[in-house]
Design brief:
- The chain has helices at 9-20, 23-27, 48-51, 56-69, 132-139, 142-145, 151-155, 177-185; strands at 36-42, 77-91, 111-128, 157-164, 172-174, 196-204.
- The radius of gyration is 21 Å and the shape is elongated.
- 28% of the residues lie in helices and 28% in strands.
- The protein is α+β, with helices and mostly antiparallel strands and 215 residues long.
- The model has no long low-confidence stretch (mean pLDDT 87).
């Protein structure tokens, strides 16, 4: 816990840097298992918009990349996967005098961010000459440590991998199952990154109740 008297972005960064340089943080162990793992079969690349319905522009970008780079024939299965690792969460106490120095005249509907969870994420598309269940079996448990037992399935499959690990949120594109294995085994690059905001919680200014997005 640390106080922030001068509430500015540069001060927030300073507090983050101090925390990351602390002994407590260095003793912190990053998770070895993902927080979220999702994997599903697609009828076509255009179905990605149904799987990634919270970010239309990203889904369209992924479809475009897939159509440009996936060329394996014949295709017996098409799959999409998502992996998310959580790092840590930064949250704040409710200020005694409220969030604003000068309270708004009408706080109705105003929301502020009270907590941010940092982490890393990866999306991947797999086109394969094998059926979906065979690809799924090749990617389960043993793949993370050793995928030689499923070499034939992966050899006859093609992958496009997008990983995002740092605060700049720049996606890195991989084209091999070794790239996926490397990410799964070391998503935080031996502590060289703590990730970027992957989740946030908003609260209403008026009564500090949790904001829930309406869909």
């Amino acid at each position: 816990m640390t106080p922030m008297e001068d509430v500015r972005w540069i001060q927030y960064q300073k507090k983050m840097q101090e925390a990351i340089a602390s002994k407590e943080y260095k003793d912190f162990k990053f998770p070895t298992r993902p927080y979220i793992v999702q994997f599903t079969e697609l009828n076509s690349l255009d179905d990605l918009s149904l799987c990634i319905n919270d970010n239309e522009s990203f889904a369209n970008t992924l479809v475009k990349i897939g159509k440009q780079e996936l060329d394996i024939q014949p295709v017996k299965s098409l799959c999409v996967g998502k992996v998310v690792f959580k790092s840590f969460t930064v949250s704040m106490d409710i200020p005694v005098n409220g969030v604003f120095v000068e309270p708004p005249s009408n706080p109705d509907g105003l929301v502020y961010v009270r907590s941010l969870t940092y982490g890393t994420s990866a999306y991947f598309i797999i086109a394969s000459k094998y059926q979906y269940q065979e690809v799924l079996s090749a990617l389960r448990g043993p793949f993370i440590e050793n995928y030689t037992n499923h070499e034939e399935v992966l050899k006859n499959s093609q992958i496009i991998l997008l990983t995002v690990s740092d605060i700049n949120q720049t996606a890195n594109i991989g084209h091999s199952f070794a790239d996926l294995q490397t990410y799964l085994n070391n998503p935080f690059m031996d502590g060289y990154t703590y990730g970027y905001p992957i989740f946030c919680k908003g609260y209403y200014v008026k009564d500090n109740t949790l904001y829930v997005e309406q869909r």
